Structures are given as C-alpha cells and as structure tokens.
Amino acid sequence: MNEKKVYRASTTAPVNIAVIKYWGKRDPRLNLPTNSSLSVTLSQSDLRTHTTASCSPSYSPPDTLLLNAEPQPLSDARSQACLTSLRALRSTLEFSDPSLPPLSTYPLRLSSTNNFPTAAGLASSAAGFAALVRSIADLYDLPHSPTELSLIARQGSGSACRSLLGGYVAWDQGVLVDGTDSKARVVAPRSHWPEMRALILVASAEKKGVSSTAGMQTTVQTSPMFQTRATQVVPKAMRDMETAIAEKDFPRFARITMRESNSFHATCLDTDPPIFYLNDVSRAAIKGVEAVNEKAGRIVAGYTFDAGPNCVVYYLEGDKDVVAGAFKTVLGGKEGWDGEQGRTTKAAEGVLEGIVVETLKDGVSRVILTSVGEGPISVEDHLIDEKGEVVV
C-alpha cells in the first residue's frame, strides 16, 4: 500500500429554494421534519458549493474542513452524523471486498467554497452539506442513489436532502421513528419545466440574527399557529403544488408559493418572542411583485422568502422582460445583470413607483438571475492537490 497516496473526489452542489417551507422538527437529533416540503433546485452556474473530499494514510487526525479558506469545526453532532454514516457505508464495502483500500479508516481533509454569501438566507447549509455528502460518497465509491444519500444529508441540514436532486424536489416528512422514510424525491426533473426562472434580490449578505435551527424549535414550542400549519395548511399546499408542477400551471404555482411564504413568516411572527426575518426591503419587493402582476393583468411572478430578507421571484422565461425587466429599471445599476439573462432582459418602465423604488434602490445590494437546475455534478477541478495541500 502506498503510505502517501492521496485519494480525492470533487463535487459541485446546488442551492434549492423552497416553495413549500420546512419549519419545525419532530426529532431534532435525526433532523426529522414536522411537515413535508418542496423546492426548486437552482442552476449551479449561478449558485453552488464546490467541495473536494480527500483522505490519505499520511494525514494526521482529526478530520478537517476549510470553507472559503477558513477552518470550520467538524466536531458538531450534525457533521459527525454525516461522516459516521458515510464511513459506515464504506466500511461495509471494504468488509465485503478486502482488496479495497481501507479509506474509511483514513482521516478526511475537506475544502469547500461558495460562490454566494454564507448564512444569509440563500440556503448555504443545504448546498454545503449536499456537496459534503456527495463528494465523500464519490471518494468512497459508494453505489447508493441520491435519494438514499439524502437520508444522510438530512442529518446535516434538513433542506440539504433536497439539494442532492435536481429539478423540482420534495422532502417527504415520513412517519417512521428511525427516519428511514424521511427522504427526498424528484417531483419533476428540470427537463419537465425548464422555463422556470428566478430573480434573487439580495437585501442582506450578513448572517441571520436568528438561525433557522434555533428559530424553528422556538416556533414549535411557542406558536399557537404552528400545529394548524403543519397538519392542515402544508399538506394541502403540497398536493396543490405537485399538481401545479405536473400541469406546468404557473399562475397556480405562483399563488401557492406566495401564500405559503406568507404562512411561514406569519408563523415566525406568532413565535414568542417573534422572529423577524423580513425587513422594509423585503416588503418593498412584495409590493413590487404585486405591481408587476397588476400591470401584466395576470400572475406572471411569485415571491418567496426563506429564513432571511432576500426575495426570490419566480417567473417563466417568456415573461422575463415583464418581470425581471421591471426590477432592472430600478436596480439596473446593481451587480448581477452582466450575465446572459441580465443582458438580454429589456427594462420595463413605469411598473414600480414611489416608495417601492426608493426602498429597493437603497436596500438591495445585488441581484442574482438564475433558473431551475440539476443536482450535484462530479468535477475534476480539485481544491486539494495530489500531495494533500489546499489549492489557493
């Protein structure tokens, strides 16, 4: 055995933005949700985490992780759950085939980069844990499907299970105590409805005041609205949204998306003490979407907000000048319009007016134009070289 050989695998993984929100855990240790959820996987050309997993008999313990060149702990329970599960799967392969190198026994050296702000309501933990799980699964040459691996990614970050798949993805709540039925599945592939687009208005690139993990547990414990949302509101929204996607019915998709976002944030406000993820810029974005739909005389745009102030506006490619064009008129000077989608979008004058214009201009730092995308992609661009050194 080569005592110095470095084994490597690299993956990029996407951000997903939920249109039916995950909020609340029935088992915090296993990250089992109180309700099902559904998201759109976004294109990795615009939003992605790139991770290289490596191991070697020459590495000294413990396992290490660099995120954007900064050391990050791997000793937390969520990270350890993922690493332990992946090592167990590799160990099983090694036991059945003794000729395999004992990779499960070697320390891991991980390096990861995001091309978007971390922990600012842009689903960074979802992409991060999806990339971590997929890259290590590739390093270990595991034969397991993305849905099977989603059971592991879920333990790191609940929404990470959805980032292991592309297109339109559901995370089923499940009912089993051990969580083996709480996993991701494809509702429809990207190819089913490739015209879906998203405009993200970045209102803040700062870390959230209340993390998702802390916020949702406080909601579960204190919100009178929570049980109604989990047991009645969300199950109906899931059924209706799957129908809207199957039928490619955008007005229905947008109505459900906006109503669901409002329901989620109403539950946050119903928490004691109340959780404020939205701000004045967020509310101006909502008014902006309402103005776009009113001007068009039909529903051409739908807003949603995760646990942060950034607005995600869904629309179809055929309506990009009507939707993105209205915001380009106001925000054309901001970073983010230089890509193909931005350059080819024609500004639409006179749609957004008054305080909405002023608030968006002052409060939006940049825009991101993206579209529905695929799941994780294995790449040969390694962030750790063949000697085990981090590539700067």
Describe this structure in words.
- It is built from ten helices and 16 strands.
- The two termini are 29 Å apart.
- With 392 residues, it is of the alpha+beta class.
- The strands form four sheets. A six-stranded mixed sheet has the order 8-7-9-6-1-16. The chain has a four-stranded antiparallel sheet with strand order 2-5-10-11.
- It has helices at residues 77-96, 124-139, 146-156, 212-222, 226-246, 250-269, 280-296, 320-331, 340-343, 354-363, and strands at residues 7-14, 16-20, 25-27, 32-33, 37-41, 48-55, 64-67, 70-72, 108-114, 168-171, 184-188, 196-202, 302-304, 311-316, 366-371, 377-379.
- 36% of the residues lie in helices and 20% in strands.
- The chain is globular, with a radius of gyration of 21 Å.
- The model has no long low-confidence stretch (mean pLDDT 95).
Summarize the structure.
This protein is an alpha+beta fold. The chain has helices spanning 77-96, 124-139, 146-156, 212-222, 226-246, 250-269, 280-296, 320-331, 340-343, 354-363; strands spanning 7-14, 16-20, 25-27, 32-33, 37-41, 48-55, 64-67, 70-72, 108-114, 168-171, 184-188, 196-202, 302-304, 311-316, 366-371, 377-379.
